[in-house]
Amino acid sequence: MATGGRRRRSGGRAGAANRRGEAVIEQMPWQIPVNVDRPTEPLPPEGVQAIHEGAMRILEEIGVVFLNPEALEIFRQAGCKVEGDLVRMNRDFVIEMVGKAPSTFTITPRNTDRTLPIGGNHMLFGNVSSPPNYWDLKLGKKVSGTRAQCQNLLKLTQYFNCIHFAGGYPVEPVDIHASVRHLNVLYDKLTISDKAVHAYSLGAERVEDVMEMVKIAGGLSEEEFQAKPRMYTNINSTSPLKHDYPMIDGCLRMARRGQAIVVTPFTLAGAMAPVTMAGAVAQSIAESLCAIALFQYVAPGTPCMIGTFTSNVDMKSGAPAFGTPEYMRSTQMTGQMARFYGLPMRSSGVCTANVPDGQAMWETSNSLWAAVQSGTHMVYHAAGWLEGGLIASPEKFIMDCEVLQQIQRYMQPATFATTADDIALDAIKEVGNDGHFFGIQHTQDRYTDAFYQPFLSDWRNYEAWEEAGAEWTPQRAHKIFKLITAGFEEPPMADAIRGELQEFVARRKEEGGAPTDF
């Protein structure tokens, strides 16, 4: 499959030039990683039961605030205890409703070759979403996000085969008024990319507009749109123990039209949740399950995922911290709980670092490997995230894609196959006790694809690296970024569909888009 749209474009290491031809880099083909590893499960069975019991008691005894009158009325009809905007619900109701959610489902974008299987052993990676700022390597500082920067990050989202879905805005284009921002960005997203997209649940107009635009881009009737998930939304609870009006409203609208929902509490231990990780996870589970129960009551079988964004704060400053040991353990524990409830899971590739440096990479790598260990199915923010989600960086995006490709290679059966050819006794016998394996036929037949080949890492020795210009990793990533965006071509879209999208955007702008108070 083409890497960047209608033609392959890529760049990278000089030694791979012959293999990659005119492409900017030699990247791995589009694939859906299959995680065959047994998940890391720090909780014994009694630990799982303890967190479950804690979550159920939160819902039964303490309750969760829902600032959405429609949700309150639905809970009242369902027999839950509603006092003002506080809802308490019986565990039997919660478990019954959560049991209606499918353990696996698909999301089908306009390019059906990019259909995403959610659940099982599948693992999907998405782009950075929602930072208001952008790291400008040339200026050496962060700047406010723009539409042009957002478009370039969407080009990277489409280009890299290890990125499977286009999450929220990869950087918030604050140069566009908030009332029409979603129209511009979704138009860009649906034309620059053909991968599965996300809608922010931030008001009825935004959700309804995005659903209509996804319908148009896919050439779908309303019946076809509702027949299976074509997109998804992700919401965060307002921890502790609160769900706001617009996010619940958006999810109800999505559920009634058969689209997928991810519920991801933002529970920071020590600030918005207990300082203990088990307590923070129990609260997060409670905040997720009560919303999923609501959506299942309204539309049984709605595809839902349980998300985790449980980490800790720096107790010296109160600032969020990501990629920490506590973050890793909370992700693993949430994976156990998601399996306990039979729900697919979402986690994130996140860091606290302010620039694309070593700290950024070790914190993100911790986050990504925690996702692998936990059995995560959808990894949000897998490429491009900095400063706890306040900065998007194209260089970090490309650096992260190197890590994502390595994870994908790690999961390929070739890395752990044990056929007679893999055990290679004949080759070992041929070399014997003296000699080497470089020149034998067994090696010659396999050397071109025996091992992972990086597109960004530099494996030369110091002298060769110095002679070639002594470029640090972000500088090399910046060059690749410029080459990819300069040569990018959008994936095909019929002129009639493109025109219909343009007409929809123009009409909705004339109508005022989404209301704002400024």
From TrEMBL:
Gene3D superfamilies noted in UniProt: Trimethylamine methyltransferase-like
Region (Disordered): 1-20
Biased composition regions of type Basic residues, renumbered to the chain: 1-11
Pfam families for the chain: MTTB (PF06253)
Any one GO MF annotation of this record: methyltransferase activity
UniProt keyword list: Methyltransferase, Transferase
Enzymatic class: transferase
Alphabetical GO biological process terms: methylation
Domain of life (superkingdom): Bacteria
Annotated EC: 2.1.1.-
Family stated for the protein in its record: Belongs to the trimethylamine methyltransferase family.
Protein name: Methyltransferase
